[in-house]
Amino acid sequence: MTERQTERPNAPTLELVQAARLCSFKADDGWPAALSLECIAWLQAPQPEASRKGWTPERRDQLQLLKLAADAGELNISETTAREQVAPAEVRTPDRFTPAADWPKRYTVGGVPYAYERPEQYREVTRRWVTAEALAAWMHQHGGAPSGLIRAWFTACGVQAGAAQQEPAPAAPTPEASADIAKRAAMVEDLRQEWPSIEADLNDASRNGLREAAYTGTHGFWFADKAREWARQRGKLRRSEPPQAINTLWSGAIRRHTMKG
User: Fold this and answer.
1) Do 55 and 135 fall within a single domain?
2) Which residue segment(s) compose the domain that 46 sits in?
């Protein structure tokens, strides 16, 4: 569950060995420069007792939080897609009680099943990766504290926990372009009345096309006009109602009188 490796450490630490065991990478290769969302969830969540293995509720909660942050564009990620083996080759041998109806028809002769080798099975798997710098910046922005294992990863990558990620300054944007760029929270506040589902759509941005249409590529910033146009094309904007005229037969000016006590 790792992408790239840092330089091999001179003295491997206990945290490195524990993380390598949890995330299935080689401790001899050192800390990875990027970890998958699943691996980060395992390292950040409280480590369970020996009797509790696998995906504990705490690890699932951490993974859900990371996915929401990535979908909303608040956590910088990269993606890779690879063909991974999900089942090895297997020789399947029927016994005398195996019904032919439960056996692949092409491996039967006269209704009698016979042994065959099932080939390896693969599937396309897309993983999302986060660097130590990106995770530290996101945690700093949201007031999160790294676990001991995550802090050890930060240290190995030369990242100071609690320090915001230094992002490169934009290359002299034009006034017209910069006026359209808004922080997520500000954009939500400005468009909430007109676009009621804006927060849900931003949370699902990587799947519904909004991220591709309106994300700036800079952590936490969006093109507000492009986002609004995306919503308009999908009928998500409220229609503004025209002002209601007063029903009257009089074509002249209307004067309202009030009684004085």
Assistant:
1) yes
2) 14-82+124-156
Q: Is the pTM of this model over 0.85?
A: no
Same domain (yes/no): 142, 203: no
> Does residue 46 belong to any structural domain of this protein?
yes
| CA–CA distances in Å: residue 121 to residues 24, 48, 87, 107, 144 | 21, 32, 5, 18, 40
Residue 35 sits at the vertex; the CA angle it makes with 73 and 154, to the nearest 5 degrees, is 95
Considering its fold, how many domains does the chain have in total?
2
Q: What backbone torsions phi and psi does residue 255 show, to the nearest 5 degrees?
A: -115, 130
Residue 139: Cβ-neighbour burial (10 angstroms; 0-12, 13-18, 19+): buried
SS3 content of the chain, % helix, strand, coil (to 5): 40, 15, 45
The whole-number average pLDDT for the span 157-177 is: 54
Tens of pLDDT along 82-135?
Answer: 887 888 888 989 888 888 888 888 888 888 898 989 888 888 888 899 999 999
What would the two tokens of residue 26 be? 């080689």
Q: How many CB atoms lie within 10 A of CB 256?
A: 4
